[in-house]
Amino acid sequence: MSVPPSPKIDRRAVVTAAAVAAAGMPSMSGAQAAGSKGSVAVSLTVNGEHRRLDFDSRVTLLDALREHLHLTGTKKGCDHGHCGACTVLVNGIRINACLSLAAMHEGDEITTVEGLGRSDALHPMQAAFIEHDAFQCGYCTPGQICSAVAVLAEVAAGVPSHATGDLTAPMMLDNGELRERMSGNICRCGAYSNIADAVADVAGRP
């Protein structure tokens, strides 16, 4: 007797269902889920500016930033949460914007690479990446910089990582800690040593 194949699980459908439950929004009907638009209004503070947007409830935070707000510094790489090119800060905490629905971030403060500094007043991390030549093609750089800024905040707050040994000792950003904390950001050009140097420079250690 043949066994029927297991149904395929759609990642976006799962994420959408989770966001609907978390945000307390009414679930979409089967017809809506199949293709029609279920519009939702969301208020965000993006790079210090209050924005109110209306879009399909299935829009990811990444697409909201790029397609609706035209903040294209945040990159779409794998679109599966593996590469870190889409890293942004939400209330100071780094996330992969491709895995988060915009509808989940009502009232949140979003910071993209554009919000860290300006061309005439770079963020110290941006300046360090230039100084240490910590990029080649540059595609992953916005995510790397946002992640690095969050790493220093994590260390300052005493948040441990998988590489942290003694949880009772003062948090130190040694080489192992740095590489573990930045491991979610992939550089296909292989500029990891220079990236580590840039982050260490801003952290104030050799």
TrEMBL record:
One of its GO terms (molecular function) is 2 iron, 2 sulfur cluster binding. SUPFAM superfamilies: 2Fe-2S ferredoxin-like (SSF54292), CO dehydrogenase ISP C-domain like (SSF47741). Gene3D superfamilies: 3.10.20.30, [2Fe-2S]-binding domain. It comes from the Bacteria. Residues 40-116 form the 2Fe-2S ferredoxin-type domain. Keywords: 2Fe-2S, Iron, Iron-sulfur, Metal-binding, Oxidoreductase, Signal. The keyword Nucleotide-binding does not apply. InterPro entries: 2Fe-2S-bd, 2Fe-2S-bd_dom_sf, 2Fe-2S_ferredoxin-like_sf, 2Fe-2S_ferredoxin-type, 2Fe2S_fd_BS, Aldehyde_Oxdr_Iron-Sulfur, Beta-grasp_dom_sf, TAT_signal. Residues 1-33 form the signal peptide. Pfam families: Fer2, Fer2_2. The keyword Iron applies. This is Xanthine dehydrogenase YagT iron-sulfur-binding subunit. The lineage of its organism: Bacteria, Pseudomonadati, Pseudomonadota, Alphaproteobacteria, Hyphomicrobiales.
